[in-house]
Amino acid sequence: MTPVEIDRFFARLAALDPEPRTELLYQDAFTLLVAVVLSAQATDAGVNKATPALFAAAPTPQAMIALGEEKAAALIRTIGLYRTKARNVVALSQQLIERHGGKVPHDRAALEALPGVGRKTANVVLNTIWGDPTIAVDTHVFRVANRTGLAPGKTVEAVEAALMARVPPAYLRHAHHWLILLGRYTCLARRPACERCPVVDLCRFEGRILPAP
User: Distance between CA atoms of 210 and 78, rounded to whole angstroms?
Assistant: First the structure.
């Protein structure tokens, strides 16, 4: 995809949804961080079914520690890997208090040092809470970037680097939300819904179905 086509690609997505947002439910930086940690290998919809009760019981790091691993696990047991995730959210809460005064740090290295937090999670928090121009490459973003020819890469790291280099600065803040939503609802894994894709004419996918002239 050429630079001109990439600009058109994002301009169309921006016109359709000027202020895209994560579909995870959260109230602040801490609850977003926890929700993103819980979303690993799980759907946002599945996480959203469990987090209201969890956040009602533990809306702060202090409350999460007081709740404890067993009770946290019981509240999120519908989510895959719930025991490991419960252990991580309690442990990261402890580290937030010990190292950051109970606040979620606006710092990539500090975020990635927390239990259960990887680069993708850090990118989501940095972008959603502070508006940093980061791109979190999940399965949807990876698929869309490769399938469309927007930013091909064999690894998550390669796709992220390609997107950061190719997405016009004006669109960087919201780029990963647009790509996630495009992959989640239109550019589906098994059968992309080309017939309702707003950027199908710019796509490089060999199996794409163009609308009738």
Answer: 40
CATH tag for 29-130 (out of 3.40.50.2000, 1.10.340.30, 2.10.109.10, 3.30.390.50): 1.10.340.30
103 is catalytic: no
Q: Which of 44, 49, 71, 120 is catalytic?
A: 120
| Residues sharing a CB contact under 8 Å with residue 87, sequence separation 6 or more, in sequence order | 69, 73, 115
117-168 tens-digit pLDDT: 999 999 999 999 999 999 999 999 999 999 999 999 999 999 999 999 999 9
Active site residue 120: yes
Which pTM value belongs to this model? 0.90
